[in-house]
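Lab notebook, bench 4. Still working through the backlog of constructs that have no structural model yet. Next entry is a single chain of 621 residues. Request: give me the structure tokens for it.
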Amino acid sequence: MKRVRFSSRFGSDNATGHFFYYVCSACIIALLGTLILGRNLSVYGTADWGLGSYLYFGLYGIGWYGFWLMLATLPAYFLHRKHFRKTALIIQYILCASFLIFITADTFVFNLFRLHPNLAMIQMTFFGGGQIVQFTFGMVIQIILLTIAVLIATAICLFIAGIISRKWNRTKTAFWTLLGLFLFSQISYGFAYAFHKQTLTAVSEVMPLNKPLTFNRLLIKWKIVDANTVNANNLNLQNSKNKMNYPLSPLDCSGQVPQYNIVFLFVDAVRADMLRQDIMPNAWAFAQENIQFNDHLSGGINTRHGIFTLFTGLPGSYWQKALATKTPSILVQALQQRQYAINAFTGAGLTMPEFNRTVFAGVDNLRINPRGSRVYQRDDNAVEDFMLWHSQLPADKPFFSFIFFDNVHAYDFPEEPQHTLFKPYWEEVNNLQLNNDFDPQPYLNRYKNAVHYADINIGKVLTYLKQKNLLDKTIVVVSSDHGEEFNDSRQNYWGHNGNFMEYQTKVPLVIHWPGKDKGHIDYRTSGLDMAPTLLPQALGCKNPTTDYSVGTPLFTQENRRNWVYISNYSQDAFIEPNRIILINQTGALQYLDTHYQPAADTTPPAFMPTILEESSRYLRK
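Model written out:
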């Protein structure tokens, strides 16, 4: 009797009844998942959407997710047929609940960063010291409550599917309808992609676990669309499977130049407008006596790409190739050729992102792991370790040090009166509370307190260099890997890696270079310009800079480009004076103005051939 009652709640006992139940369940779960993903539309921007676009979004979600959920639960269906009903339903419940939990989590991640959870983010969050999101007690409670709600919703959906399958058994109709929606979603997207219909191709931007079909070559072959139209609006910088060919010619750094030490003093996530006397007094005072760059953009809006582009002079699209081949940065190669002592002193480990296998690949005795429990303590220890390391070097040994403070990224500092100058400040960061109506001031004040504490460590290093009489023979670079946003644009952007506006791209840059006069440089520069500046001028490298970089020397104003490469985890972008051009994972171009609204000018840029050439120049053909 138990077996009969249990079975009757979830459809009939025949095979087709079981199958209809699983198809019906997949459709209902997919519908709920698509409705949840509607949260992503509120931040993506749908001002130009009509009813048809929303309908397409819904049908696409049901067809795409429903089809794959149906396939994923087929093992449970076969177990059901073999009378392992409870086991089958438990497996189905776990799969459906896991899907909805992921979808729910995606909406929070997408609302903050405008990208979907990916392996890089998961690694950085759970294995990189919370470098993406730090889970506070309040966040953990909210996550638990949301998870419980999703688990209950999953059970309700499956219960409804059981009722429907018991009263209305239309297996063939349901299957062919779901298959039709799946095919419709893919075919329609392929046409929309070829004709650059952004109100339809937006599904690839706002829906996770989604790799839609494109068939441009087929449409061109059948003369349905013109090849020039397709190629003008599509570009993919990530598809090459070739290995690195970097530098293009063997590096020759035998030139006669003054032998300067080089110290990089970087703070994670410091935006350009933080370089003020009240927030960063040590860095500000240092800037008054040296060279300050007033319009400097990082090469990436996350740590991975911001630091990678700095050391390599290459666009962020080369990251995966460099990682796969363990190719060291050109700056490290030049330093090694000049017999420099090289080390890094960071508040976060060098394994996530994998700078030990890219930027610093091949460096012996590299300080990979920080020490200390709190982030600000790890930064303090990084300064101590740098001083100890340097004190043990031979007096005539040139050295390079990358000192990278992480406390600002974690909003961490000693909460003592002398370190809490900006009040009121948010005492516990809870990213789940952030929305367009959230008051950013307490959050910003906490950020300023963290920046102020990082500046204290900058001061410690500068004081040490002065005491050791090193400033006259040391190039010192003070900067950051990317900026940080606090809903400055009023579009619900927070943190970094979310957009390419100035709040996340523009960073301070101050350079102390013995023999160079102090002053301000107002033309636009980029992190990509650091390597082609240091290699010829400080390390005596004779190669043309195009052998290893797409950047321009920082102190050269003539013939500078009016656009800048910049990257995040899922996109490449090109920043023009009045326009931002995005390239998503599928290679589609999107044109925005500096306020991140659709640009009136959608003319493909004239530098497109240059982008294509430089994006493959350093790969073996």
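Notes after review: The longest helix spans residues 137-167. Confidence is low (pLDDT under 50) at residues 1-13, 127-132. Flag for follow-up if needed.
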